[in-house]
Amino acid sequence: MPRVGFFTDTSVCIGCKACEVACKEWNAVPTKGALELTGESFDNTSELSADSWRHVAFIEQQVQTPSENGPQEGVRWLMSSDVCKHCTHSACLDVCPTGSLFRTEFGTVVVQQDICNGCGYCVSACPYGVIAQREDDGRVFKCTMCYDRLKVGSEPACAQACPTQSIQFGDLDELRERAQTRVEELHAAGQDKARLYGESPDDGVGGAGAFFLLLDEPEVYGLPPDPIVTTRDLGAMWRRVGAAGAALLAGVAAAYLSDRG
């Protein structure tokens, strides 16, 4: 079965938050209470969390805009709907002691809350800071890419609700080709900073199942510029621990035999 994923084209995101609403409604994600202002412009969810599996970021930038009298100071808005990246090399899977996190037949990463013990190892292992625990019982929750919908041939609720096709769902290889074409269109239109983020299988997580077209540096959107799977060196560490243990046992055995001789 081909791997599926998200391609989020931030150049056409209008910040409507339909994705956030659709995600909460379909997955029965609870609200944190009454609508509250965060002091972060139009952003009332602030970040991805156990209760916000989609987060639309609003970034206000001072830019030079053309005018009859030459370039003048202006403002532009960057908006982007962030989500779990469903990494190819997922550190959260490596550290989960109960098997609560698993990779599906679609290549996505899902949490089974009924066997999550709330240890929180996956929280610190995620290089994007996506996974979070609920305050009441410590269990973790995150985007499932609507696993229940995928199993019956439907697309995720957020992609279906997006009115501008900023969030596109489908075969991951096809999405990468589509994204590269879109970047070339933007470059031809003068958007020199347009770039893809998370699409390369050669990056530090082996490529993301949810990647983005950005109009500026990743840090501007609150994304790490060069994420690396945090369990990358785990195998080498255990091999060194094993070698050290074997050397210690050999030394003890040699000392014991020397005393007997």
Structural class: alpha+beta
Which sequence of strands runs across the widest sheet? 8-1-10-9
Terminal residue distance:
65 Å
Query: Can you tell me the residue ranges where pLDDT is under 50 for at least 5 consecutive residues?
Result: none
Shape: globular
- How many distinct helices? 7
Tell me which oligomeric state these chains represent.
Answer: single chain
Strand content: 15-25%
What value does the Rg take, in angstroms? 23 Å
Succession of helices and strands: EHEEHEEHEEHHEHEEH
**Main sheet properties:** 4 strands, mixed
**Average pLDDT figure:** 92
Helicity level, as a percent range? 25-40%
Number of strands: 10
SSE diagram, text form:
Layout: E1 4-9, H1 18-27, E2 55-65, E3 72-82, H2 91-95, E4 101-103, E5 109-111, H3 121-125, E6 132-133, E7 140-141, H4 147-150, H5 157-161, E8 167-171, H6 172-188, E9 195-197, E10 210-214, H7 234-260
Parallel strand pairs: 1-10
Antiparallel strand pairs: 1-8, 2-3, 4-5, 6-7, 9-10
